[in-house]
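Let's study today's protein:

:::
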Amino acid sequence: MNRSLVKQLRALVGKENVLDADEDLLLYGYDATPAGPVTAPEAVVLPGDAEQVAAVVCLANEAGLPLVARGAGTGLTGGARPLRGGLVLSTQRLNRVITIDEENLQAVVQPGVVTEQLQQQVEARGLFYPPDPQSRATCTIGGNLAENAGGPRALKYGVTRTHVLAAEVVLPQGQLVRLGARTVKSVAGYDLLSLLVGSEGTLGVFTEATLRLLPLPPARHTLLAVFAELEPAARAVVEVMRAGILPSAVEFMDGAALRCVEQYEPCGLPDSAQALLIVEVDGGPAQVAEDAAAVDRVLRRAGAVEVRLARDDAQAADLWRARRSAGPALARIAPLKVNEDIVVPLSQLPRAVTGIQDLAAEYDSRCAIFGHAGDGNLHVNFMADPSRPEEVTRVEEAVARMFELVVSLGGSITGEHGVGTTKQAFLGLEVPAAVMDVMRRIKRELDPAGIMNPGKIFPLTENDARAKDE
């Protein structure tokens, strides 16, 4: 990088907050995506407030310098990787919970706040921030906003966007603006806040968010249902949702996933099962007890060979530990784990899981499925050994076929991971050309210099390929 630019960056944020040592640059070239290109940035900038973020973005825009905003780097689709060098703007110093407003049920936070730490702080006051992505112990609110993160509780409480009332954002040309309102309702003009949430850092950098909180549910019951076959478990999800009960979570694991978890971190799961469901209900004590009993009856009628009610919070925590261990456990099976988070309409869930297993068999690929079955969001994991190119090719072909299947069932290629780089080639399966054109025009209007997280979301054009090579 031009030393004059480095000098200007250090003048803006402090010498110690601009990193350009080779080892630092390499570290910020990665995120949690298991494969794909790793390109080190030319510098890493750690601003300390919103005004410094705006100044850095303004400088990058004037210099035509690519800029990638980064939280904790836990994303799985390459969204935080700097494909074209330039700057990585880390929000790690912007890590304050500014206020917890108990009267208005709101929290005002900076983007570098770790999600689980926010949850713990509000729960200590009898409040509740529902979004609970798999990486909640390490991921940050800014990354959650950029990806519109979900998690198991999205079934009942909605994804991140549902809980964002207002935000302070630096737009690609350096303007610091406020979007939304600190009210439950507001229809004053276009909903630009919803546009920014889930835009994967391509339209701006969040510097503050006002989040909606809920009262903490006083009671919670967790059930484990065991199935001898895969398809009845998928059908049971549909039956639970049709029974007039809204669980806080309905999680699915197939036999391959649960056996891998038991080898990784034994939790007492029945390793002979072909599928299991974890169903959680929350609310008032009497209603929760009634709902749990009703779910038990539905699951047994749907074909569960065993249904267990967690006897206490510790046993429930064990079940959730098993579910959250699925991703790390599967990583031990093969060096390359391709985790795709597809979504289908609930009625199509049985066809999706059986169709995916058929594809795995057709391509002779190792595959395990788990995820948030209650809202049709499954994490499909194809595994391969990178030292065997033919095995990797089979996985790539199986994934492509899976996306075609999902879209044919009326589904989506991503529910919470985003598009990033790993799914951009498949976006056209779901998004019509006319809509893609509107999206590109919005991007060009807000970011005419094309600096903000370039090379993400949209399928690459010839110009994009040339820019990448340069």
